Every structure is written in C-alpha cells, then in structure tokens.
User: What shape does this take?
Amino acid sequence: MLDAAQFDVKLLDYRVVFGELTLFLAKYDFLFNFKVTEFLRRRVWEKVPEGWLDALSELSFEELNEVPYGFTKEYWPQSLLTFLSDALKLSSFHFAKGDGICPLEVVESCRFGMSPKKLHEVSHLASLINSVCIKSNCKYIVDIGSGLGYLDLVLCKQFGYEVLGLENQKLRVSVASKRTTIAKKKDRNDCMSGTFTQRQFELTNNEESIIQLEQLINELWSCDADFNVKGVCLIGLHCCGDLTPAALRAFSILSRTKCLVCLSCCYHRMEPAGEGFLHFPLSSTLKEAMSEMESTDHFEVTKYALRLAAQDTRSRWRKQTTSDHMFHTHSVAYRGIFELNDDLSFMKQKRKLARRREHHNFESYIDEVIKRTSLSDSESVRNRLLRLYNEHQRHFMFIEPFTLLQVMLQPVLERLIIEDRVAFLLQQRLDASVQAVFDDSISPRNFAVVAFKV
Assistant: This one.
C-alpha cells in the first residue's frame, strides 16, 4: 500500500503523463474530431500532412494491418514516422497484464447461455476478482450493472462469495433469477456455497443514490456473522457511460467497500455538459493539465474523441481481411455520398441503412436505402447520387489509410480516459492501478481499474 508521499509522487507523474497525452491529441485532433459519415463532406484527407496518405496508400492491406505493430518504410515522411512512433509510445496497450489472472474453468451449470466472448470475459475477470478479494479479505461482492448475472453466478457458485447484483432493467433481473434457478437444477450434487441476490437498482452520481446503495448492502448482510470482519468488493463488467464514474465515487465514499475491480465501455455515452462532459475529466490533475494548455494547443474533449476511444483496438485491425477493408471503405464512402446532399432528407425504418451484402456496388446500395427508408425512388435522386459518386470515387482510396491513423490514436484516447479515473482515485488516497484482463481481439474494452483502500 502507498503512503502519503507516494500518493503525491504518483499524482505528479500523472501530471506529466496528462501533459504529454493532451499535447499529442491536440496536435492531431483533425484525425478524429468529425463525424465519420462526413468524411467526404469535410474533405478531411486534405487536413492530413503532405505525403502521409500517399505513402500509406501504396501499402497492401496486409501491410496496412501491421503498421500499428511497428511496420514502417524508411522513405516515409519524417512527420509520419514521428506520429507513428509517438502514438505507440503513448498508447494504452503498455498497461500490464493483471496479476493472478489464470482463466477459471467455468462449470457447465454456470456457462449455459454464454457466448464465447462472454465466457472469455467471465473466466478471466472472475479469477482477477477472486485474487483481489483474497488480498483485501473480502467475502461480499456488489456488482454494478450485473446484467444477466453470468459473472455473479460464477463468483457465487465457484468461489463461495456472497454476491449482490444491481441492474436497472427489470427484464434482466428476472432473467438472471431464472438462470440461477436453472443452474441449481443442472447441478444438484454441487451445492452453491455462496448466495446470489439481484435487485433492480440504478446507481447514479449523486449522494442519495450512494446512501441507498449503502442501505441495500446493510439490509442484505448486516445480520451475517462475518459482516463486521470481512469487506465488500465493488465490481463492474463494462460499466457503460457515466456508470464507471458513479461506481468510483461510490467506492470512495462507502465505508464497507475495501476493493474495486471495474471495466468500462461506451465512453461516448457519458453525459455532455456545456462544451464538455459532466464526468470527464474526473480528476483535478487532468483538469489542471488541460486548463494550463496554451490556447493554440488546447485539447477539446468531444463525443467524437470519446467514440474513437471506444472503437476496436489494433489487434482487431490486424485481423481485417481484404473483404473487411473493402466493406468498410464502401460503408464510409456510400454513406458519405448521401451526407453530401443537403436537401436529401429521409427517415430510417431499419436500424441500418443497408445490409452488408448490398455494399458491393453503389447502385445496389441506393436500392437498399430506398427499401429501408422513406427516401422516394426517383430518377432525379438516383442521378444526383450517381453524379456525386463519380465525382468522389477517386477519394475512396484514402479511407483505409485514414482509418489506420485513427487506429493509432484509439489507444492514446482510451489511455487518457482510464488514467484520469485512476488519478481521481489516487486523489482520494486510494491505491489504484490499471490491469489488462482480456484478449482485446476478443473483448476490446479489456482494462480494469483495480483499487484498494489503504
């Protein structure tokens, strides 16, 4: 555990890190501060330094996939080589693999209904949580946003923890209860040593919500003989948007909580406030770093920056096939053609404008959009779209190289968000760190904030 002086030293280190990250992101914000579907409208390729896209456009898709892993050509512009080198140096994938993570073999009665991705997440995260709970002498676990209870059932059945799952959607609470009942029937000879209780509850960033959570904990476990001896661990698997800031605040305030394991997702769903976001930055350390930046170097936090931070990682990019790259090119380009028409308005009747199979050529894409939206099928509309297609087709070649540049920035943006949350906990004098938990090619949001009360 850290002493007071060590906390101060770590926060000073974060001040330096935040300065480096924000200066870098401010310098290259033209690569992400726009809506992707407006790629053509904004002519964003024209903002890229001279020679960058020409150099990257010469690469095969296989070579393009390897750039985030250090592949370069010595004759590339020095400014491009510097960007790539700095991005790699500042990226989140330098976070260490979590200590004590030996994937758990999930028993058959608990794994039913799990997708391969969910099984991977549960087997790794359950192991880490158990290790953290042993270190903190915790018997009780509160899961924020427990969903269908996959993780909680494993923690209860295979490790014997007393688990309280909190989920704000009534249907999920009901399904989790049914899964627990089925698990007991599937394995009658293996008595569940812990208890899994799920309640409908939404944790928010206000004092009243945290008081209600404390009351729930006390009502459920205050009569347990170990409650005054053993601690409570607060966990969250892919807490969406503002749920992670709420969980961190609750952990810092609740007297019973001794440790925290929290993974986040969907950073772009954090609540906006003015020109920024209500709970980002969270730490005064990052707030100070951003306020001290020169006006010419100012880094503006936008929903586009947060959305990119929540995108796939370089490991998924590395696995992209030629077909995947072509599909992505057509998706961005074809949607971008429609965005060029200011007077072309229509309502979507399906979640997606067009199915994947209709992206092989633009005329098929137009047909699909007409079927799935309120867009009228007229010769003038088709002719206008095809004319714009012919005008901009030569720019399509820049889409994948440009996307590569965004892939390089994704882990830098994600690191800024996660480190901000760690700095917030350190400011509360809580021992906090970041650990990589999953294979990010399977589960991209794989970084857990792990914290202990000193």
Q: What stands out?
A: Residues 399-427 form the longest helix (29 residues). The chain is about 50% helix and 10% strand. The CA atoms of residues 33 and 282 lie 21 Å apart. The chain has a mean pLDDT of 92.
